[in-house]
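Troubleshooting log. The previous structure file for this entry was overwritten by mistake, so regenerating from the original sequence record. Sequence copied from the archived sheet and checked twice against the printout by T.R.
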Amino acid sequence: MTGQDEDERTGSLSMLEIEQQAGRDQRRLSATLTCLAGRAMGRVFKLEAGITVIGRLESADIQMEDDGVSRKHAQLAEVQGGFMLRDLGSTNGTMCNGVRIAQPVMLRDGDRVRLGRNAVLRFDYQDELEEQMQSKLYDMATRDPLTGACNRRVFLDRLGSEWAWAYRHRRPCALIAIDIDHFKDVNDTHGHAAGDQVLRDLVAIMMRAIRKEDLLARTGGEEFVLLARATLTPDAYIVSERLRTAVESHPVVFEGRTINITISLGLATSGDPGVTTPDQLMCRADEMLYRSKQNGRNRTEFTDTGEPPGDETPGPDAVAQAGTTSSGEFQAPKPNAGPPSASPESAASGRPSNTPKP
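Regenerated output below.
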């Protein structure tokens, strides 16, 4: 037998090792809900002992932000080793296997639960291997494999639903386009492995500086976007500057070398003049990012409407966190830099001027 044949020979396991592994694979099954349709499609929620509340609230144990889901929509309670589903007086009801429930029902393996218009959950018992597989598949479908940020597809889906949510609730939304300054120089000088480390560290820094409900996505090589819910221009500027200063103050260390990184940002909101669709919001953010690059980089640019501010303005504590740009030329939004409180069109329609149009 040649040396190559020796290397390719299949390793053998004892029967005891095989039986021990099989025993480990047959751990106690866990109750789970897998989202089959809706904004969380593909995500698996592991049910714990006690009561699990499902709803739109951030404080819900399982948050579902789809159309028609109430703030506290339904709950699952562990009862005698099983799980009982109960509607919590939701506006649109809870359905199990196509039937609207009026009384609590005990769920069986494979049952489907519908909340509101789009959210569909499947109740299952899964072992650890199945849970890990489902989690891995979900991450592969929604996350950028290098940085862990959301991918472009997730961002586009979320942008459409956020726009609809903002219009329905008469609230604003903001989009920040982000680009790493002179990223090509990083790759040319330090190599692509260093560039990959910069991207990973950048996302980790920004994730620590944003809210749970905001979405950070990688849309290109060194290009990112942040979608911020219910955020006016002054508050979005604070978020943007918090990101910029955090990145600037945290150099990346790669193989003993320090790499200083800065980012340029372009800010757009649903209250900007001429922004009436999600596509226009994206285009405006890109325009502001280009202006930031043209004006020296490492800065935030946004559209100054020159009109009176809206009702929501950042307080003293929030302004103190924003910091200033490195050049000192760009000031924090003055009172006339915020979105308008009401335009003639919005006054006639009853919709705030910073609210997305249908």
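The two ends are 74 Å apart (CA to CA). Archived copy saved in two places this time.
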